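Worked example 4.2. Below are the chains of a multi-component assembly; read each line carefully before continuing.
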Amino acid sequence: MKNFKYIFLGLILLAAQLAEAQNAKGKTGTFALTNANLVTITNGTISNATLIIADGKISALGKDVTVPEGAEVIDCTGLSVYPGMIEGGSRLGLSEVGSDARTRDYNEVGDVIPQMRALTAVNPNSVLIPVTRISGVTTALAVPDGSLFPGTAALVNLHGYTPDQMYAGFEAVVLNFPSTGKRGRWDSRSEEDIKKDAEKALKQLNDAWDKAVAYYRIDSAIRVKDSKKEMQYYPEMENLLPVVRGEKTLLVEVNAADDIKAAIDWVADKNIKVVFSGVSEGWRVAEKLAEAKIPVIAGPVLSIPNREYDRYDRSYANPGIMQKAGVKVAIKTADTENVRNLPYNAGFAATYGMGKEEALKAITIVPAEIFEVADQLGSLEKGKIANVFVADGDPFETETQVRHLFIQGWKIPLESRQTKLYDEFLEREPGLKK
Amino acid sequence: MKEYIAIVLLLLFSQAVQSQQKGTVLIKNGTVLTITKGTMEATDVLIKDGVISKIGKGLSTPKGAQTIDATGMYVMPGIIDAHSHIALDAVNEATSPVTAEVWTGDAINPLDVSIYRALAGGVTISHALHGSANAIGGQSETIKHRYGTVDPDALRMKEAPRTIKFALGENPTRVHGGGNGIVPRTRMGVEAVFRSSFSEARQYMKAWDEYNAGKSKKGYKGTAPQYDLRLETLADILKGDIIVHCHSYRADEIYMLMQVCKDFGIKKLVFQHVNEGFKVAPELAEFGAMASVFSDWWAYKFEVYYSTAYNATILHKNGVVTSINSDSGELIRHLYHEAAKTQKYGGLSDNDALSMITINPAKQLGIESRVGSIEEGKDGDIAIFKNHPLSIYTIPMMTIVDGVVEFDRENDPDDMRIYVDPKETIDVTLHGTGHAGDRCMQDAEFLFHE
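Applying the procedure described above to all two chains together yields the following structure tokens:
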């Protein structure tokens, strides 16, 4: 019997060790965050209130909320509760080590390949994911890149062990709108070649689109006639079809002012759902964007202005200028390993004209609206998915620490490989002498 | 004729002096973050002829001096970036694993608008480093951001000691072993390059010593050894006249270079990037090596995959003099924010965090007696911030170099390029993200093979 006890103890220890293999497990249940400052985003801030998480959802919040029996009570005195931050465009999960092609999965071969789905390539066990989420970023759009139509982006919550567990309910076909400018300092193409390349890319885009429209017409005709005929297997067009029909969003990556104008014209007569992403020169054409009623995901904010002669702080001010002109603006880092800097990209936008409140919306409710999941994410509201973090201060300030984290109602341990290395090496053993 | 030449030379000289102008300015009533001597509320700082001459309350304005009202604002030492490649026309001489003979000082571009952008982030000095393509790269230059001059020479900080760039790991092994099929292809090869280079330099020094000792003796038959700038430079490293700044990532290679330096008696050693420095922090502290790190960049290469944003804190708490650097024309604009991240990752005090972008990089460049803190007698290099410089809501308002206002947000024209290229098209660069802004491997990319 005694032996059995030891075996049992040993098994527990072994289990504990196995759990350490990646990260400590999340846990689910009913949680009550009490005495908290609730920053709801959509309904103001409620001080000294309670928020209940049950069945993965925010089941109640407010001043007069009774804590359900059996709930784990987390005293949040002096702490604030925020909805999880939403990254509007990254390679998170699609790339592990930047310089190593074997770990890059965002750039498939081909120019028009909307059938390449980011959701299938997101690695739920990427080391980058815990590093990101413990900063309060709970949801991210994983975006393929590299060609004209490089694939279909997917919104994922940053916890789960399969793509389906992570999927947050939004996909969009990506279009890298043909660029008329240089691609960077290293771009040594002549002006003529740049022009030729841009024309070629635009022609390629229009050809692809014409084909998609033709495909749509044939498809519609077949449906109307209720014929037994089937469309020939054509995955490229099959995946552009919902975009042409106006059912699925087209996520247009576009940055230079002229290109933004061209993109506005290009989508104008198409009657499709469109979001612009990047828009680093949106400030130059803010009125036009507002007029066209095209929402944007701006970023990275922490970047160099596009042109040598631009004011040094244009990229910081860009989201604020567009927002004040009436554009719906979300903010992205466009990063991979440092999506955790999303609050700082928003913080710089806040400081340089956007204001704290609008900048906070730009990484919570606004991207949720743009991604058509505002009924589930982006604010603290009853019935929404419990993506929530608790912080000891303003999340834009660097000294602020995240104290608790929930994703889809799971209480996530505040651990990543980076925190573990800190724990192991702050006081290394053996130290200097063995 | 001779007089005319003398006059012309004198004129040229006076112009050079003029381009390194020194200003007189009184900064009134700010919260002064001295870094080395605490924080002083409602205090004035007087810079006279480019040097901080007085710190105190209610100082009177000298005749003709500019007065700056810093009421409600924060006055801190000009920020120093120990790892940068701005204001350079060329970064890498990637033609040999050892190129100690070249010098970035020969490639300074005073017209680079990045200097102005750095000033707009409160940065007054940067270390114009050679790139990391070679195990022993070129010598570097410490520059003051005196924007507005067209004279490359005017940017040099003449008091700064000589420095040189070394590099370990993937960059030299990919360029030389991978690209050109010569040693080093591995970290073993990198060590061998250092050992053979320093051994050669020792022999070179010995040959010169023998010649110099013998040449005045009667009947000496020897001849002078052949002059070699590469070996001269390596010899100067052995003599302790040059500070080594070494690009590094993994703990094992960091440890390796310390062993090599111990064997050759090299003591002045600063590790750059040093992402895994935290793993050998006690060894770095014991050696007296310093560390200049990124606040949070990682995973852009395999050798920085096992990295942590807590690096700076661990190094600091182990007693290593640590700085936060940019290696980027973008990050250099908000090093105050990068330093602030040490409060997220490790809870450092305000003063410790700010030391990482002021006095600590000054120590690493060997210029701490001139800059890096607000003290009487030091250079008038100052940054003035709207809110506390570690707050996200701060805005750099004014940057002063040698008492001359080089950036003033209230009086900041849109286009701050010095020269406009008439042939340049109104042109746009697509946004690069993250580490794409890094110039460590500029001019050497073509040598990479997957």
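Take a moment to check your reading of the output against the notes. The two ends of chain A are 41 Å apart (CA to CA). DSSP finds 13 helices and 16 strands in chain A.
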